[in-house]
Specification:
single chain; about 40% strand; ATP binding; ATP hydrolysis activity; Rossmann fold; cell membrane; 2 domains; alpha+beta; Molybdenum ABC transporter ATP-binding protein; six-stranded mixed beta sheet; OB fold (Dihydrolipoamide Acetyltransferase, E2P); binds adenosine-5'-triphosphate; transport; 9 helices; 20 strands
């Protein structure tokens, strides 16, 4: 458990919050630019002079009035937006730099070969950072962070500026790492897809304060206030390994979804799908002759106001799960959609992340 109860003044900006971060989980710290996400992370790391209050990890006081533990003695590792690798050293030398001595490493959880394999770095070991893509460099930075044997990993927008393929690989790598080592991770991000794929808990910040905290599912409503509009997070499990035309069958409760085989983490037990409400369309009967791959039976639970006056968010139940569709009021009237009615909700496989 990481207990934080802090205050910090930086010019006109004031960070003031108290929260207990769960151990063994991924907590995403989410909020608009300038709300204080990085400042919070830096405060936890001991990188903000003038911090007031307390920061405690398990039973250790890291920061209190009478005691401040230095960053390098907190057993944490930080990965930033920039990988900060030694440009003149090879990947291997970068990784070995700062690693515990061999005799100490023997007893450590995160072994050199395991980390190289987990992050698929074997082909790059003798290259210099300039000979790597941005995503590969960031994987080296994550590996180096892990090899310092942290008890807590702090990630500050580590996937910013990377393309979708590089991001997907890093997200899959981080998931594997977290599951393998039960390593607590604090991830600063303002990308909803990263939060949805990685977070167990979500802390939402506004203007230096906590706006809300909770599990990912509890926070979907708050995440829906994001610029890109309302969303749903569906939990799906692998189907019976059926494949057709490059699509793989997944189960959403009792119903089947067909998703592209590429971009999905291999051997995944279950997966979260981010579905933007704007990508969901509704029909009163099953859609035939359509290019849409996925349609599910759903029951209308209710309606919510949307940002745009001409639209509504339709809340749907798909089995036990919640799906949101952004639909014009004109369509709601034309189709006579009412709470309790059953509909077919269709969305493109390409709209699934
Ligand atoms: N030394 C400083 N003096 C004055 N204001 C500062 C100083 N350092 C940070 N700030 C302010 O603190 C606020 C929080 O910054 P921070 O980088 O933590 O935000 P953030 O949520 O991580 O933003 P982003 O997502 O853009 O990285 C910002 O409004 C910033 O301008």
């Amino acid at each position: 458990m990481l207990h934080v109860d802090i205050e910090l003044q930086r010019g006109d900006f004031r960070l003031q919050l108290a929260h207990q971060f769960a151990a063994h989980k991924v907590t995403a710290i989410f909020g608009p630019s300038g709300c204080g996400k990085s400042t919070l992370l830096r405060s936890i790391a001991g990188l903000e002079p003038g911090l007031r209050g307390t920061v405690c990890w398990q039973n250790n006081i890291w920061h209190a009035q009478e005691r401040i533990v230095k960053t390098e003695q907190r057993g944490i590792a930080l990965v930033f937006q920039q990988p900060h690798l030694f440009t003149t050293k090879t990947v291997e030398a970068n990784l070995r730099y700062g690693m515990p001595r061999a005799s100490v490493l023997k007893a450590c959880a995160m072994q050199f070969e395991d980390i190289i394999e987990l992050l698929s770095l074997q082909p790059f070991m003798q290259r210099k950072p300039a000979q790597l893509s941005g995503g590969q460099q960031q994987r080296v930075a994550i590996a180096r962070a892990l090899l310092s044997q942290p008890q807590l990993l702090l990630l500050d927008e580590p996937m910013n500026g990377l393309d979708q393929a590089a991001k997907s690989q890093i997200m899959a790598d981080l998931k594997r790492i977290q599951q393998r080592f039960a390593l607590p991770i604090l991830l600063v991000s303002h990308h909803v897809d990263e939060v949805v794929q990685l977070a167990d808990e979500v802390v939402i910040m506004r203007e230096g304060k906590l706006l809300s905290t909770g599990t990912l599912q509890q926070q979907v409503g708050q995440l829906s206030l994001h610029d890109e509009g309302p969303l749903s997070v569906l939990s799906i499990s692998p189907g019976d390994n059926n494949q057709k035309d490059g699509l793989l069958a997944w189960q959403l409760g009792q119903q089947t979804l067909w998703l592209p085989t590429t971009g999905l983490p291999a051997n995944s037990d279950s997966k979260r799908l981010l579905v933007w409400a704007r990508d969901v369309s509704l029909a009163t009967g099953p859609l035939k002759n359509t290019s849409l791959n996925n349609q599910v039976r759903a029951q209308i639970v209710g309606f919510e106001r949307a940002q745009h006056d001409a639209e509504m968010v339709v809340e749907l139940a798909v089995g036990e799960q919640q799906l949101r569709a952004l639909v014009t009021k004109a369509s709601i009237e034309r189709l006579n959609l009412r709470a309790g009615y059953c509909v077919y909700a269709a969305f493109k496989a390409a709209a699934l992340h």
